[in-house]
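hey so i finally got around to running both of the ones u sent me last week. sorry it took forever, my laptop kept dying halfway thru and i had to restart like 3 times lol. anyway pasting them below in the order u listed, first the sequence line then the structure token line for each. didnt double check formatting much so if smth looks off just lmk and ill redo it

first one:
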Amino acid sequence: MSEAEIRRARADDAPAVVALRALVFPYLVRGVESTRRMIEQPPPGEDWAAWVAEAGGRVVGWAAAHRNTQTSTPGVGDISTLHVHPDHRGRGAGTALLDVALDHLRTLGSTRALTYARTDSLPFAQRHGFTASRELRYSALDLRTAPPMPEPPPGVRLLPVDGLDPRRVHRVDAEASPDEPGDVPIDSFDFDLWRHEIWDNPGFDRDASTAAEVDGELVAISLVQRDGDRMWSDFTATLPAYRGRGFARLAKQAALHAAAARGVRTAYTSNDEANAPMLAINEALGYRPVDSQWSCRRTLS
């Protein structure tokens, strides 16, 4: 039995949740306001829910689960995050949080559960019926020496997404996402959900986020989520018809340059180990690995 009390997360838990995340996963970037909004205004249609483990009046664990509406694969539920303070592991809090998250997915009719686990947490995941699937590399870039602003080739414009029609930005995201390596395809990312989760997110930096435009068409994007002097590359992608011409690197380098000019000091990103083109771009930009996680999957009865 867990020494901690498990309860539904409240908006005023946001500062403690962010502090816990910074301790357990220092490379994950979601600030207090973004976390508070997630709890108060969950994404539409996902039946998102979160819980905390509380011991001695302190938040020592957190888990969130939701229906995956971004894939056409039926019955998929995600446990998007589960973490426990290092001083409180091995006392049942992680198992208790996982149990309530899995029960929530069952009530949604999910038949498959997906989550992520660090390498040292794989035994815990495996004991609870999950099978490791794909390796995800987390990388960091020190922006105190900012990458130079790239010089686009003739006919190409690099634009901050601020002021652009968000539907144009969403189109690039939605058309590029199905090619992302993963356990299920991201092929059903509708505009309303995208706008809620990305465009209207309090941490979305529209000035640093950059798009590449060719002959009036947006062909590549690099989106930035920010918390103080840290940033997360939310998604960098190119429309399939324009790949292989350097547009993703142009957009990402410009986004990093703009973020550094706005006070960001460390940039984080993640990539599936099978995503060789994006890994090559990040390595060329100077990113270095800081951790790995594994996607894990389980069938639900």
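and the second one:
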Amino acid sequence: MNGGQRLTGRYQAWVVGLLSLNFGILFFDRNALNFLMPFVQPDLHLSNTQVGTLSSALSLTWALSGFAVGRLSDKLGSKKPVIVLATIAFCLCSFVSGVATSFIMLLGARLLMGAAEGGVMPVSHAMIVSEVAPEQRGLAMGVAQNLGSNLLGSGLAPIVLVPIAVAYGWREGFYLAAVPGLISAAIIWFTLREPPKDADEEAHPAVTLRDAFRHRNVVLCSLISILLVSYLVVCWTFMPLYLTKSRTFDPETMGWLMATLGISAGIGSFVVPAISDAIGRRPVLAFFSFLGVILPLGALYFQGSVWILAAIFFFGWALNGVFPLFMATIPAESVDPRLTATLTGLVMGTGEVLGGVLSPFAAGGLADVFGLTAPLWLMLGLTIGAGALSLGLVESAPKVLARRAAKAAGGQG
């Protein structure tokens, strides 16, 4: 087999599907504490501040690990072993969460869990860049990052874990969450190959990280990551409170309105990137970022049927489908593909630290001063800012660039 040769379309689909499943299982583990917290908090006597600290701690080590592990993988040229080892480590941390008897022990498990999982997605994206044809790259990255994580981490996790906690206890929920990842790690090890190095790339020196950040797209994608990760985290944190306290919806109605977001993200995981493969990254990222304004505006002002409000939530949350584009696809297409894991880890980590860790504190402070409408207005500003930054991107979609080149050649002819 020649270096860089891609295998069949069936194998490419298997790579994407398996990596999506693996990341979904890890997200199932990551979200387990959120759904089990009503049982964990009284048992371990945790304060609300400690509950928030557990979430922020995982986001912080996730971000730092995403860059460090991605950078190490790119330097070593090794992908499959990194994913397998990180998955096993993450599952072991889930088991440790189940045996925790104090806040400090649980905090340590969450810190280690974030460190283990942070590198999985950047390295998975690097594997996809190596194995999947460029014309399907956006779709493949979207499915790998968003489909499994939303179906398993957001959809299946509460349905499975809460009944187990009620029947057997919250610790058993963590033990159960640890098992599937060990299985997926074994399947990855035995069925996926280590992607070969491309002969053409080997003949040319890799672009340095400093050179990569001279490209406008990499800088803009990092800024967009901060804004849109903040948008997501603020929505997850404060929308349930706003719907129940300010809009006075009952908890059940609030629950399925929020569940609409998971359905939207699952569908958007392959629809939005596929559209970007066809018409371009720049217009899709800008359009769906601006479309995100309808979610906070709908929650603030729409007073009609709750079914229409659910539709507003569904379409507004479609911006979730652009996350793989600015976190991985556009940076990888804009500079050297050999830096995919590094750039994905850096862009993702920037969003996690400045968005996932800091934005809830900012939104909470605004809510204390101006009320629960303030976080929604913050969401509005964040998505408009992301849309504006998207307009400055340089187009990178292979199909679009090929059409432009063909048109230019035809014009010269």
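quick thing i noticed on the 2nd:
The radius of gyration is 21 Å.
anyway thats it, ttyl
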